[in-house]
What we know:
Elements: H1 23-32, E1 47-48, H2 60-68, H3 77-89, E2 94-98, H4 101-112, E3 118-121, H5 126-134, E4 138-141, H6 162-172, E5 180-183, H7 196-209, E6 213-216, H8 220-230, H9 239-249, E7 252-256, E8 267-271, H10 274-287, H11 298-310, H12 314-333, E9 346-350, H13 351-354, H14 364-376, E10 378-379, E11 381-383, H15 385-388, E12 403-407, H16 415-430, E13 438-442, H17 448-451, E14 453-456
Parallel strand pairs: 1-10, 3-4, 5-6, 6-7
Antiparallel strand pairs: 2-8, 7-8, 9-12, 11-12, 13-14
The chain binds ligand F0G.
Residues 51, 53, 100-102, 125, 127-128, 183, 187, 216, 218, 256, 258, 267 line the site of ligand F0G.
Amino acid sequence: MEFNTIIEPFRIHSVAPLRMTTQEDREKYIQEAGYNLFSLHSDNVLIDLLTDSGTGAMSRNQWAAIQHGDESYAGSPSWIIFRDAVQNLFPFKHVIPTHQGRAAEKILFTALGGKGKCIPNNTHFDTTRANVEYSGAEAFDFVIAEGRDAANLHPFKGNMDLVALEKFILEKGVQNIPVVMMTITNNSGGGQPVSLENLHAVSDLCKKYGLPLFLDACRFAENAWFIREREAGQQDRDVVDIIREIAGLADGMTMSAKKDPLGNIGGWLAMNDDALAGICRNLLILTEGFPTYGGLAGRDLEALAVGLTEIVSHDYLKYRIQSTAYLGNALSEGGVPVVLPIGGHAVYIDARALLPHIPALQYPGQALAVELYKMGGIRGCEIGTVMFGRKPDGTEVPAAMELVRLAIPRRTYTQSHIDYVIEVCMAVKESASELRGYRIVQEPAALRHFTSTFEPI
Ligand code: F0G
């Protein structure tokens, strides 16, 4: 018999306490934090859905692997185990370990970016865009139109707009495009997957113009699971097979191992090009460390190698995608507007639709995120005008979407935690018309969402 309840395919081995707070406490904490959720003490957060990055629970086999870590500066056996685990899924010739994803981005764009260069992506994640721009290059997003429409039910809303990409290549000239990026899944666009067909088409287009294709592959296993579930002819394949096919379409990748590789820290940069790898390794030595450990300890490398074997379990991926959908569908059915279909690692509430009375430049996403914390101690993350509104030329422009992301740490919360989140979201929806916007009091030069302070209007 098949049963409907989605059970967590693991049992709890070690626990961390949650601290209960009152609404009155939380109003004080968030005011002291300048209404910036990144500035809260996490002991004062009940359900932390700020990010799925590095916040997951490791398995007992990962903890055992930590003990096995070898801390030799050069040529550690832990490095070999890690490299082999990466190449088993992503058979790129060169694997360069880094302490997290943005370190890989910094190295790649230092090598390839610079003034006059243009880098297309389906949608750049915030640190990816920031690293492109910091190098002096320009970042461009070409996700399909359906991917910008929160309610559209297209099964692969992370897909690249091929017509727009080709037009861009012809306009800018191949000599000015050092790399084409594809983010799987498309985090900033709602955690939406990219189809295998679209990946093939982008790869073909890159080959036609002689451009290298790099994956920003943080959530590769979730993306591969969506392909298996949704794309014609993929239902009988092992996800490992799908992942290898995706890797075979690209020339390299950047990776945050804090997501699907089930690590608390880590990342890598991988590629086939020998000359580029040489440049990147030299940059790595400048800032991250020797090429057999990057910014990581041997024990971290071992934990990641085990994580890479656990993430491709079909039982895990089925639970992961279904349990995220459980939250998203409950909110949607309860009348909370969310990005549909539900993405892999997070549910994205459409703050523009929920709070139509708050103008974009008064940050409806921020208003909603603050209210979720005040009401229920839930910490989500604004992905809207606060995150993307400030342009390199200093102007402020509303973002394409005003979202609040509830990201689900891997293997961390149970269904009763999620049922509580649903209850709190419903209560916030009831009081939506009373919420007011925010203004920014203090703002840094870049990536302002991390450290700006706000006040209610
Ligand atoms: N690319 C994507 C698509 C990401 O989602 C992230 C991180 C990075 C690159 C950078 O990796 O954090 O290891 O340096 N995303 C996290 C998030 C922070 O909350 O979505 P990192």
